[in-house]
Amino acid sequence: MEEKLHSGNTFLFFDKAYIAEFVYGGIDGAITTFAVVAGAVGADMGVSVIIILGFANLLADGFSMSVGAFFSTKADRDSYDKHKNLEYWEIENLREREIQEIKEIYEKKGFKGDLLDQVVSVIIADKDVWVDTMMKEELEMVKDSKTPFMTAFITFVSFVIIGLIPLLSYLIALSFNLNQDHLFLLSCISTAIGLTLVGYLKSIVTEKNWITGILETVLLGGLAAFLAYFVGNILVKIF
Q1: Residues 6+ apart with CB under 8 A from 57
Q2: 7 alpha carbon, distance to own chain's centre
Q3: β-pairing, 14-15 with 10-11?
């Protein structure tokens, strides 16, 4: 079962390259929305107000986070392209120095004598290979395959989908005019389940034990909710 989930370039239903964006977008969405719900409950606000505040948080914070992800990814790609163009310029204008740098790189790897000369000759025979080698070995830069748009999209979608979970019990209760006595408890349970899923995915990204990943994520969400509930409860008594 585990091998099927991880096979190929996809995990579940999306590209594995974007698991990190899905995870951190989902964590942020669930925790911040749950904190809004907890704070509103602590302030003894009505169901409709909780839903309004929750959706306002979902859309505003989700968009803000996706914009940040977009520009962060774009900045990394722009930086890579800038340095790559500079390497092409240096090869054209400072050729001997760049050849010496390639030689020094492979000397440190243990290449010597004729073998070193052959390796250097093969690399400098192709400008693209030469530049790629300099980017990886000298600058330690590798171009990220993730695009700014898709990074932002996955972050926003994850934020909204996982962030919607704390609001589900309130939406259902309002839509079907159900008893509202235990809505916050149901929100806590559903949010814990959502954070458990995201925590498991986080363990894949961080390569940690999955139990540790789940516990960290759920406890963090619980702490955020506790603080929000406490603040909401105190403020409503003051004002």
Answers
A1: 32, 33, 36, 163
A2: 21
A3: antiparallel
Burial 202-233 (b: 16+ CB within 10 A, else e): bbbeeeeeeeebbebbbeebbebbeebbeebe
Q: What's the pLDDT tens digit per position in 27-41? A: 888 888 888 888 888
Structure tokens at 222: 């619980």
**Residue 10: DSSP 8-state:** E
- What pTM, to 2 d.p., does this model score? 0.78
- Cα distance between residue 111 and residue 193, in whole Å: 54
Two structure tokens written together for 161: 């989908």
| SS3 state of residue 227 | helix
Here the tokens at position 155 are 């972050």
Backbone angles phi, psi at 172, to 5 degrees: -65, -45
| Nearest-angstrom CA–CA distance, 70 and 109 | 37
Q: 21-38 b/e with 16+ CB inside 10 Å = b?
A: bbbbbbbbbbbbbbbbbb
